[in-house]
């Protein structure tokens, strides 16, 4: 199946780390190469369409005038640098340009202090976000309607992605790569660009990030165990015993923290592992269904299609290498 050419538009700011722009661009480009997909179209824009000087004197030149960009598949807002001094350089025209993407069903990513830019454009209202810990109090004072969680390296809320630091671009771009090219390319890309990762990190799939934006340490521990467990024989009773709670208490706390019931979350894990097997193995759909815990193959197919908008076979044809 021929893959679509992906367009990424990056907004770069002066006096900021240029890695917040160049890093994500490089990751997406490598991922496309590994997937055998067309090279991404990269638009780099600045507020005044002039080159900017980043930290260390690195120069970034725009590739297109900002007002000419009306459509993109991924919108990236680079670091603003020090927001306590640089936020005042934000122009109304830039904020208006950003706001046009509010209604677009695309990933909108801010790196580090770039969250201040999205918040200033009112694109993080009543959403969860993160930013650099050093500017946490300033952010809370300026944008009280955003749920700031600086203890999170990456947040995702309704396709608004934020990172707490510059290096967080690696994590957030892996989530984007998985959405665009699939789990296998995500893992290959991470190994190629950043080196090997441990099993828990590899299994921290994109569709679980929204369910980790809570502060219940006990449920976080339970989620970590579920993702790293070698068996899929989960049950409400097993989970309750694991955290030494009654079934009723565990179900209530799990739902309150994640927004999902334990059974719904178990289904997510099983379907994610099924996706991995569809991409990497030649196992039959029937064998994969049973291996991830579904003896009723018809039910597995229905559940998979409901979750991924395609059947297991369609998914395999699209993503298997």
Automatic annotation (TrEMBL):
InterPro entries: Class_I_gatase-like (IPR029062), DJ-1/PfpI (IPR002818), Homeodomain-like_sf (IPR009057), HTH_AraC (IPR018060), HTH_AraC-typ_CS (IPR018062), INH-QAR (IPR052158). GO terms for molecular function: DNA-binding transcription factor activity; sequence-specific DNA binding. Gene3D superfamilies: 3.40.50.880, Homeodomain-like. Transmembrane segments: none annotated. It comes from the Bacteria. Pfam families: DJ-1_PfpI, HTH_18. Residues 220-318 form the HTH araC/xylS-type domain. SUPFAM superfamilies: Class I glutamine amidotransferase-like (SSF52317), Homeodomain-like (SSF46689). Keywords: DNA-binding, Transcription, Transcription regulation. PANTHER family: ARAC-FAMILY TRANSCRIPTIONAL REGULATOR, TRANSCRIPTIONAL REGULATORY PROTEIN. This is AraC family transcriptional regulator. It comes from Photobacterium galatheae.
């Amino acid at each position: 199946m021929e893959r679509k050419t992906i367009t990424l538009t990056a907004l770069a700011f002066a006096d900021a780390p240029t890695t917040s722009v160049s890093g994500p661009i490089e990751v997406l480009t490598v991922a496309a190469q590994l997937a055998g997909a067309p090279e991404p179209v990269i638009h780099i824009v600045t507020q005044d369409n002039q080159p900017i000087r980043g930290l260390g004197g690195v120069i970034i030149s725009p590739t297109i005038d900002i007002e000419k960009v009306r459509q993109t598949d991924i919108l990236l807002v680079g670091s603003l640098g020090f927001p306590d001094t640089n936020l005042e350089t934000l122009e109304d025209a830039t904020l208006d340009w950003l706001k046009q993407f509010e209604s677009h069903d695309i990933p909108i990513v801010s790196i580090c202090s770039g969250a201040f830019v999205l918040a200033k454009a009112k694109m993080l209202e009543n959403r969860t976000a993160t930013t650099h810990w050093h500017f946490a109090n300033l952010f809370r004072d300026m944008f009280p309607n955003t749920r700031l969680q600086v203890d999170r390296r990456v947040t995702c809320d309704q396709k608004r992605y934020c990172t707490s630091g510059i290096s967080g671009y690696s994590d957030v771009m892996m989530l984007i790569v998985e959405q665009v090219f699939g789990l296998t390319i995500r893992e290959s890309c991470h190994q190629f660009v950043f080196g090997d990762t441990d099993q828990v990190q590899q299994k921290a799939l994109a569709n679980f990030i929204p369910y980790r934006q809570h502060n219940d340490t006990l449920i976080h521990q339970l989620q970590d165990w579920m993702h790293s467990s070698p068996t899929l024989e989960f049950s409400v009773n097993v989970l309750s015993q694991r955290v030494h709670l009654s079934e009723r208490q565990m179900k209530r706390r799990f739902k309150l923290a994640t927004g999902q019931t334990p059974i719904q979350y178990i289904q997510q894990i099983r379907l994610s592992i099924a996706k991995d097997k569809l991409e990497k193995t030649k196992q039959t759909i029937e064998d994969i269904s049973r291996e991830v815990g579904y003896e009723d193959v018809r039910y597995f197919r229905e559940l998979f299609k409901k979750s991924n908008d395609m059947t297991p076979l369609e998914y395999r044809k699209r993503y298997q290498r």
